[in-house]
Amino acid sequence: MKRRNTQSSFAEPRQALESYLESLLSEVPEYSTEDDDPALDATPHVVITEVAPADVQESVNDQVEEQPAALEDSFPAEQPVIAEAQVLLKEESSVDGGQNLPPELGKPGWAVNRFECLLFNVSGLKLAVPLIELGGVLTIPEKGLTPLFGQAKWFMGLLPAHGGRMIRVVDTALWVMPDRYDEEQRKTMKYVILIEGSDWGLGCHDVAEAITLGEQEVRWRSERSKRPWLAGTVIDHMCAIMDVGTMSKMLNADDKNYQPKLANR
């Protein structure tokens, strides 16, 4: 009898966490760019403190090697338990930016045999981007990003990169889960994940490690007419895999001032 009570005491909070993340990742309403707040866009609201100076764009391998060991321990102690519930994602999630994009079925083209991913953290969510779609990682400078007026709320600003490029930084938390968004979290984003072949970058709080996965280790989504950027989930590493190539297309479709030539440089 005592064992059953103990198991029940663990099951109840676990079920609550699973329910929370299921709601967080599966019931997110569509984020519309039509109701942007001009006052928000007109104010340089990105204030980054206590971060390292911006470096030029680094190679993926150098970035992984140079990340301080503290990053690996930067997640809250309870995060692995919370993140494990990500495997319960529903297929009927409702984020559908870039509505004109055709639905993509099954595994993405880069998911053949074994592939590498970089893990990073956004507002408590552990996400993974395949290295083949990763253009590098940059640090947000202490002075913050350069604001650009007339943009969507999820647009954080511009970040200079190697070769004179200007990276358009996305508030990943606001774009992915607007109903759970806390504006204070934007101020603590430290890094930008660059999307290969585009001028888009994903703001994040921490960069963790590079991992190698086999295609059989991933629970791939069989249908992606909704939330097409979410490719699947990984049980062992308790994370969600992003198809950032598709996400880049969605951002282009939703961006008010997108210029195709910028992404072709």
UniProtKB/TrEMBL annotation:
Coiled-coil segments: none
- Gene Ontology biological process terms in this record: chemotaxis; signal transduction
This chain belongs to the protein called Chemotaxis protein CheW
- Which top-level group of life is the source organism from? Bacteria
Pfam families named among the record's database cross-references: CheW (PF01584)
- Origin species: Proteobacteria bacterium 228
InterPro entries on file: CheW-like_dom_sf (IPR036061), CheW-lke_dom (IPR002545)
CheW-like domain span:
112-248
